[in-house]
Amino acid sequence: DQQVKQNSPSLSVQEGRISILNCDYTNSMFDYFLWYKKYPAEGPTFLISISSIKDKNEDGRFTVFLNKSAKHLSLHIVPSQPGDSAVYFCAHSQGGSEKLVFGKGTKLTVNP
Amino acid sequence: GAGVSQTPSNKVTEKGKYVELRCDPISGHTALYWYRQSLGQGPEFLIYFQGTGAADDSGLPNDRFFAVRPEGSVSTLKIQRTERGDSAVYLCASSARTGRMAGELFFGEGSRLTVL
After folding, report:
1. What is the pLDDT of chain A when averaged over all its residues?
2. Closest CA to A66 of A55, A75, A58
C-alpha cells in the first residue's frame, strides 16, 4: 500500500529566503512524484514533477530533489515570495498509475 | 470558462438523502478523476475515467458511491443514503494524458458537501 508522508503541517519563511518542503514515501517501484499547490477555496494546481529515473528537476524558482535511497522528496522554493503562501501537497504515482496518493499537505507562510 | 467546472460549489443535505455532484472537464480531456478531501487531509482518490468507462474505481469507499460519464465528457458523482462521514470537499480533475504515466491534473474548485 502506498504511503506518502508530509511530517511538517506548517512552515514559516521570510520573503527572499529559501523554503524547503519535505515528503517521504514507502514504495519504490518505478514511480512518479508531483507537487501541487492549493490556495483557500481553490482546487490544487500542478507545480512540478519528477520521475524516479531522475534526481532533480528544476523550473524557475522551484526545484524538486529525489533521494531514492532515503525515499525522500523535497521541494525548494528560492527566493520565496508572499504569493507562494499556500498549502503544498506532494503526490505519488506508483508504477505510473493514474491513481495519485497525496500527502496531508504543508501550509507555507511567506512573511513580507 | 476554460477550466474544470464543478457544481454545486456548496451542498448541505440531511443524513440519508441522495446527492449528485457534477463535473464539467476541460474540453478535449479524455481522462477524468474524482477525489475527496476531508478536513486536514490531502485529496483521496475515488475513481478515474478514461473516456466513458471507469478505468479504476478502487477508491470508492462503498456501494453508496457511484459515478458516471455517459458521453465521455461531463461526469456525475452520485452518493446514496448520505452519512455525516461523507462530509468533505469533492474534487474533480481532468487530464489530456492517455497513457499510464500520471501527469498534470487540472482540478476544479470542488463541491463542498455537508451532511447534517
Report:
1. 92
2. A55
Beta bridge pairs of residue B108:
none
Q: Are B58 and A93 in contact (CB < 8 Å)?
A: no
- DSSP, collapsed to helix, strand or coil, labels residue B85 as helix
Cβ proximity of A35 and A19 under 8 Å: no
pLDDT the model gives residue A11: 97
Q: Are B91 and B36 in contact (CB under 8 A)?
A: yes
**A87 interfaces chain B, CB cutoff of 8 Å:** no
Inter-chain contact B43–A95, Cβ cutoff 8 Å? no
Cβ–Cβ < 8 Å for A67, A2: no
Q: What is the mean pLDDT of residues B46-62?
A: 92
Q: In this complex, do A44 and B91 lie within 8 Å of one another by their Cβ atoms? A: yes
Does residue A28 have a pLDDT over 70? no
